[in-house]
Design goal:
Blueprint: H1 2-11, H2 22-25, H3 30-34, H4 39-54, H5 61-87, H6 90-112, H7 114-139, H8 142-164, H9 167-190, H10 194-224, H11 228-241, H12 250-253, E1 263-265, H13 281-284, H14 300-306, E2 308-312, E3 318-326, E4 337-343, E5 346-352, H15 355-368, H16 373-382, E6 389-395, E7 406-412, E8 415-420, H17 426-429, E9 431-437, H18 442-450, H19 463-478, H20 480-487, H21 490-494, H22 497-507, H23 511-518, E10 522-528, E11 531-536, H24 539-545, E12 548-554, H25 561-574, E13 576-577, H26 579-583, H27 594-600, E14 605-612, E15 628-631, E16 640-643, H28 669-678, E17 685-689, E18 691-692, E19 697-702, H29 705-717, E20 722-723, E21 729-731, E22 734-735, H30 736-739, E23 740-742, H31 748-754
Parallel strand pairs: 1-2, 19-23
Antiparallel strand pairs: 2-3, 3-4, 4-5, 5-9, 6-7, 7-8, 8-9, 10-11, 12-14, 12-15, 13-18, 14-17, 15-19, 16-17, 20-21, 21-22
Length: 759
């Protein structure tokens, strides 16, 4: 029920004036009541005179609706009992039963939500008008029939205001209400009811005054909409109301089984590891929600709690990585991954947009900067938006420990939007963060996103969207230079998938073999529970045949042995994380180039190096430390980019004096492995997206027995070392003796570089 009410409240508009047919609440016979000297008769007349004027003060509307709704139920219940007891008229009894049902439904709606009650009350009035109109026509009472007709038209227009929110409909409604008041005033004059004549005439004049004000609003709106920037704003406001696709959205209506889908990876101190709810399904198919009539609804905050990812490091610290949902954003969102989290009484939505859409977003932002605050407020109110102002400014908060800046956009009464403002920081420039107060619904998020043309962020991706992404992923891996140019063009997203594939083949004919080999083998793999990325199954085997044996990374960022051991234990627990993932989730652990990573665009990747058959000693790798991790080559199947020389993982396009190679000139993974196997480059780098999970860690190399011994002692203390069924010590299921090995590095490059030739 809550979702239905939220949907109605967001979809409909709030009329600028309160209206109901009070004659339906207090049924009277004007001629009988005019001569009725009793207190009851006088009270009825007084109420019918006063209520329309009291309702002009909007804060009274809710109290009036509840009170008069209750009176309507009691009134018709009393009439029904009287008709059954005295008149014994089936027609009269049936009519009263209908009225009791309508009045009860309207009252229940009012108690649930004021707008719902308003909608149902107006609908009930319309049904009553139609019933009475037919009855009056049959009886030949044409004057009364005409009044019922006017009342029905008035209620229809009032209902249309709630559905459409049109200023023209509001004007027509006010004119009809004025006509009804003057028509009723004429009838009251004939019946000699002077107080009613004065009241009806005065109300008619008030409605005409309101209609004149409304006419001026229409003229003002038309004037503002002559400006193209405000015409586009009108279109965005209208998109914010188009929420039909979200009505059966999984984030609104997940079934009760979601309660057991909370994903928690804990330490080894007695807490179980629960990873059974990885939620792969959204990548390939939509969740099929049951009917809301038999299906419990969950608030957005509850959805976040149920999908929350908590990783617990080796020291028992719980790290909240948010809640992740894959399969959203269509062509807009990078990787079709969105993240939600609760933070300081707010709900935060986070995602990255593809380059083409970031360029479009920049144009929207620049247009917003040109808005007049006063004019924007006028338009938002006239067009029925839930927002009441838009402001934007550029700010620097240093949240990533670098000199970044961002656009801070306040959509008043909805929430705020933060977008990276500096194109030279790729990881931040593409990132969009929405914040709303807890209690806001998914429909509110949709409306806010619509202001920035980002409403597709919450749309479920179609089969075609997924196929487009998979094609692009393969093209990116095997033909990176051609892919980089194509994926940053409008063409990539606008042409049909079949045509896109043909375009790729025309740019890189060798891709035909790659599509035939790998397209059907692509499967969703996990970055974090709920956060997915397509993996190219079988790619690692092909690279092994070309001489690749695995990946490696030396632990850097700290030279204190105790700190190195702690970091090693945490990596074995939660995996090796990118700078961006660490910074964004409260893990202030820096690697070799944490600050530079955001400048180069490598902050969302894990730095590794390729290991090939021709490497004799890990000393040949230019990056070194006391602890070196060995990773399975399977990690490359999630998609990589790579360089033969240290390039800081750059994803910058064009020439940059500080970096050796442009992202546009990087080699594909196959050519890269072939070249490295022929001539190993000690400063090669292979970039893995966001996280390497513990399951892909195959071992650790240390330079000395003493370090191995101290490291093992620490790993035993934090329960990383476990005993198998035979009582043998293991780490991640591998025998300790094989998992941690001692290999004293030989540094041929060091000797070559630092040896001074003899004269």
């Amino acid at each position: 029920m809550n979702n239905n009410i939220d949907y109605l409240a967001h979809k409909t508009y709030v009329p600028p004036y309160y209206h109901r047919q009070y004659e339906q609440d207090i049924p009277t016979d004007s001629r009988a009541d005019s001569s009725d000297p009793s207190y009851l008769g006088t009270a009825k007349r007084t109420a019918l005179i006063a209520l329309p004027f009291l309702s002009l003060y909007r804060p009274f509307a809710s109290a009036i609706a509840t009170t008069m709704g209750s009176i309507r139920v009691v009134s018709h219940l009393s009439s029904g009992v009287h008709a059954a007891a005295t008149e014994k008229s089936l027609e009269k009894c049936s009519y009263e039963v209908m009225q009791i049902a309508l009045a009860s439904l309207a009252l229940a709606g009012t108690l649930l939500h004021f707008r719902l009650g308003l909608y149902l009350t107006t609908l009930a009035d319309m049904i009553s008008n139609l019933y009475q109109l037919v009855g009056d026509l049959v009886k030949g009472e044409f004057d009364q029939a005409f009044e019922e007709f006017l009342q029905g038209v008035g209620s229809s227009l009032y209902l249309a205001i709630m559905i459409l929110g049109s200023l023209e409909i509001i004007l027509a409604s006010l004119l009809i209400q004025a006509t009804i008041s003057f028509y009723q005033s004429r009838k009251e004059w004939k019946n000699g009811r002077i107080p009613e004549v004065i009241a009806k005439s005065l109300m008619g004049m008030i409605r005409l005054y309101q209609a004149n004000t409304q006419f001026q609003l229409i003229q003002r709106r038309n004037f503002l909409l002559k400006l193209m920037k405000y015409r586009r704003l009108e279109e965005r406001i209208a998109k914010g109301k188009k929420i039909q696709s979200l009505y059966r959205h999984p984030l609104v209506a997940l079934a009760s089984e979601i309660e057991n889908k909370k994903v928690v990876l804990v330490d080894s101190e007695g807490n179980a590891i629960d990873v059974h709810a990885h939620l792969h399904a959204l990548g390939e198919k939509q969740i099929k929600s049951k009917s809301f009539d038999s299906h419990p609804l969950f608030a957005l905050a509850s959805q976040i709690d149920s999908r929350q990812v908590i990783l617990v490091d080796a020291e028992g610290n719980e790290i909240d990585f948010g809640s992740h949902f894959h399969g959203y954003g269509k062509e807009l969102v990078k990787g079709m991954n969105i993240s939600l989290r609760k933070k300081d009484g707010m709900i935060e939505l986070d995602f990255k947009v593809n380059h083409v859409f970031r360029d479009r977003l920049q144009k929207v932002i620049e247009e917003m900067q040109d808005y007049s605050s006063a004019e924007t407020k006028e338009l938002l109110k006239m067009l029925g938006s839930h927002a009441n102002d838009i402001s934007i400014h550029e700010t620097h908060d240093g949240k990533m420990d670098i000199y970044d800046s961002e656009y801070y956009i306040n959509i008043a009464n909805l929430g705020t939007v933060s977008v990276g403002a500096v194109k030279e920081y790729p990881n931040l420039y593409d990132r969009v963060t929405i914040q709303m107060k807890e209690g806001k619904t998914l429909y509110d998020f949709h409306e806010l996103l619509s202001f920035l043309d980002l409403e597709n962020a919450l749309e479920q991706s179609s089969k075609e969207d997924i196929e487009r992404m998979k094609l692009g992923h393969l093209f990116h891996i095997f033909s990176p230079q051609e892919a980089t140019t194509l994926e940053r063009s409008e063409t990539f997203f606008e042409i049909p998938v079949d045509q896109l594939k043909e375009t790729m083949l025309s740019l890189s004919p060798e891709m035909e073999k790659r599509f035939d080999t790998y397209l059907d083998k692509m499967e969703l793999g996990e970055i974090l529970p709920g956060r997915m990325r397509y993996e190219v199954k079988g790619l690692a085997d092909e690279l092994r045949e070309l001489g690749a044996t695995g990946l490696t990374a030396a632990l850097t960022g700290s030279w204190e042995e105790e700190e190195q051991y702690k970091r090693t234990a945490s990596i074995l627990k939660i995996g090796m994380l990118s700078s961006e993932l660490r910074n964004g989730n409260g893990l202030a652990k820096n690697g070799l180039s944490a600050g530079a990573d955001f400048y180069t665009g490598a902050a969302d990747s894990v730095f590794t190096q390729l290991v090939t058959k021709n490497i004799s000693n890990f000393g040949e790798c230019y990056y070194f430390g006391n602890i070196r991790f060995l990773f399975s080559l399977d990690a490359v199947e999630s998609g990589t980019y790579q360089y033969h020389e240290d390039n800081f993982g750059s994803r910058r396009i064009g020439e940059d004096w500080f970096f050796l190679d442009s992202y546009l000139s990087r080699p594909n993974i196959v050519d890269f492995v072939k070249e490295e196997n022929r001539y190993f480059s000690g400063d090669n780098e292979v970039m893995i997206k966001e996280r390497i999970p513990p399951s892909l860690i195959e071992g650790i190399i240390v330079p000395e027995d003493s370090i191995r011994s101290d490291l093992l002692d620490h790993l035993r203390q934090v329960n990383i070392v476990e005993l198998d069924s035979l009582g043998n010590e293991t780490i991640l299921g591998n025998p300790v003796d094989k998992f941690i090995q001692v290999q004293k590095p030989v540094f041929p490059w060091y000797d070559d570089f630092f040896t001074i030739p003899e004269e």
